[in-house]
Structures are given as C-alpha cells and as structure tokens.
Specification:
Radius of gyration: 21 Å
Order of helices and strands: HHEEEEEEEEHH
Helix content: 25-40%
C-alpha cells in the first residue's frame, strides 16, 4: 500500500516516467510506507479493532482517578461507533452489566473519556478502574482510494504523514543504484532525513506511562 501517489512522487522528484524509474519509485514509496508503520507503531489499513487492557496502573491525584491507555492503533475514526467498557473479568465485558465509560458512567451525563484519535491514546478520568479489565472497540486506519487499489484515500491521510512518506521516499530513491548517477554531487540526503524526523517527531506513539493492551 502507498501513503502517497506514485505520480506525485515522480513529479516532485522531477523524474521522467520510464518503466525503470517508475519501478524504483514504486518500491521506494511502498518501503517508505512500511517504515512509517514501524516508526509510528500503528497499521494504516482500515479495520475495526478490539483492544483489551488489564488496569494495574491507575493513579490518583487528590480524590480524582486517572487511567491512561495506549491503543494498538492510531488514526481512529471517531465518526464511527466506539465503546470503552470495564468489568472485573474478561468474560463479563460483553455483558450489559459491564460499565460503558462513554455512557454517563457516573450518572452525570458527562463523557469521562478523552481520546487523541491520531495517536490512539485514551484518558479515563474521575472513576476508579483499578484491577479491572478494560475493552476499547474502535475503527481505525484509512480507506483505500476509489481509483487506485494500492493507494490509501488521500483525503484521509494527514498532510504531515504524506510529507514524511515523501521525504523518506526521496531518501530511499537516492540510495538506489539505478538512480545513483542522478544524484551525483548532491549532498542533501542528511537534510532530508532531518526534515522527515522533524515531521514525525511529535507524532510518535511512544508513551511508556500509558497502559498497553494485553491482547
């Protein structure tokens, strides 16, 4: 799958669209997309996901409890139904007696959850979930483009992610022996790497203080 259009990459790289060059750029875009998966620690394919947590890490400040969860995936679609439920056992989670933390869990009418959709982070506040199982069910990832089967829908992919994927594609292309002569004397590769790192630095899903799913 591709995070960016092959033709857009060719245009920005200012290459002729020969079969050999197109093949190199296609491979570079595909590898750049996979590298973004690894760096950001999330898949991009669209899907409904269920994450299970065991909460042994709630913390209390004064009289308020806070529980922090790092989902298996980022790029949540909050326009689709999602649930956050808690119960004393895993088997109890599907039952109606499980606490739905997005459905007036304290009777106040307030949603006690805060969700960072892009990073896939959930904060649950003002309720003691110590030693409970928590299940989060959500939709994440990007749809496939309607015209290109290997391309993610470009209206859904954030601009910063497309730019990071292009910068990494540019770096990979420069290391390909087929195009080595095209970049002879060009010393901007290190600058491209720095630009790519800056584009994604604040987006990396590394939060050791958050609970990770047990499955």
């Amino acid at each position: 799958m591709y995070l960016i259009k092959i033709q857009d990459a060719l245009d920005r790289l200012d290459f002729d669209n020969t079969p050999a060059i197109q093949h190199v750029v296609e491979n570079s875009v595909a590898h750049a997309t996979e590298e973004m998966v690894g760096v950001l620690r999330t898949e991009f394919d669209r899907g409904v996901v269920t994450d299970l947590f065991y909460n042994d890490l709630s913390f209390k400040e004064g009289v308020a409890f806070t529980t922090q969860l790092r989902l298996n995936r980022g790029f949540l679609d909050l326009g689709q139904p999602y649930t956050i439920r808690a119960a004393a056992t895993r088997l109890a989670l599907p039952k109606s007696t499980a606490k739905d933390l997005r459905d007036e869990p304290d009777g106040s009418g307030d949603d006690l959850t805060i969700v960072d959709a892009e990073k896939g982070l959930v904060v649950i506040r003002d309720i003691d979930l110590s030693n409970l199982y928590i299940e989060v069910r959500y939709t994440s990832g990007f749809n496939v483009d309607g015209d290109e089967a290997l391309l993610f829908d470009q209206t859904e992919v954030p601009s910063w992610l497309k730019e990071a994927a292009f910068l990494q594609t540019n770096v990979l292309v420069r290391h390909n022996p087929v195009l080595a002569s095209h970049f002879e004397g060009d010393n901007t590769t290190a600058e491209l790497v720095l630009s790519k790192d800056r584009a994604i630095q604040s987006r990396i899903r590394y939060h050791p203080e958050y609970l990770n799913p047990v499955m």
